[in-house]
Amino acid sequence: MANVKVIIVGAGIVGPVLAVFLKMKGYDPVIYETSWARRRRNRDHPNGMRVLSLIPELLKHIPGHSPDRMIHCSCLNEVEDILVDSDISPATMRERYGFPNIGVRRPEFQQLLIDTAQRHGVEIKWGHQAIEFEQSEDAVEVTFANGTKDTASFVVGCDGLHSNTRIALFGKEKARFTGMVRVGGVSPTPPVLQGSFARVDNYGDGRHMIAYPVAEDDITTRGAEAKENWRMQNAEQQNEIRNGPFSAWGFGAGDLVKTGQKIVRYGLYDRPELESWFKGRIVLLGDAAHPTTPHLGQGANQAFEDIYHFMRLLGKHNPSADKLSTELLLRVFTDYQDLRLLRTSELVREARRQGEIRVVEGVEASRRASDEMLSGPFTESEM
Fold this sequence. Notes:
The structure is a single chain. With 383 residues, the protein is an alpha/beta fold. It has ten helices and 19 strands. Strand 14 and strand 15 form a beta hairpin. Helix 1 packs parallel to helix 8. It starts with a strand and ends in an 8-residue tail after the last helix.
């Protein structure tokens, strides 16, 4: 008997990981991806690392760095001060949570996951944009923009923030601009930060900047609405950013801005929370289900948690990876949604709140923001 076929829409960082787990459990996943979308940076927290550790040999190949320290600085005109200097070294994080934090360049990380999926025998088909889903009693037929059709037992939408799967299930929603714009780039490590892998948060007047030891930095500001994409700025726009007010910040932040390359600028948007993540034999996972602003660094990590619980529940209800009735899929999808929807909704709201408190004015407000960020939305058991 042939293995149960599953179509995964999206080959970002989520689809390949889900495909590997499905393959390991005896399913036949195939991934369809519109294009190869490259983003700037990814942060894998202990909760995400715990899930990835279940794929043999994967963790040791992740192309990134674990920061040793987390430093929060005030870069306000009236005072420059170190607010917090914390130990988040791999040894400390392993002792507390079992796994370290790792900052990785997204393209290299995505390539590793794609290579891993293909080594497990997963087929990935590029240049296929899913545009239509037709469900029957025991299957889903997916139509792609190039005219291709394919059929599987069920479909998982892992196609991220601009999910066509989500639109097909629940209609197109209007995104809400948060009032914040983010600028990011790649920079050499400034002299003041050399010799130590440190995550550095800098608070300015109505600005917040975060630098990770993968030679990348992000600046969150309040500004006019910008398109929600990762398009690189032209030469004139990049020079304007390099020579702007951020270049005067202390603690290495100004040097990062002045030497920044491949600078991008994009708006931050919210989307309405869904009341359901599935319809029939189609289910959403990761950003397709619960898109979030980036202020907790939990987008990928929550998607990995989704994968863990989805696979656990699929194994519970269908331990032999047999053909799935719609009734059985309903139980899997319902249990998955009931377990994950509340937690991810809380984190989406917390990420939004973190964005608000980081972009503050004045020294005392900056200190309060730093204290709130360090308190965090997680308990130790959740990490």
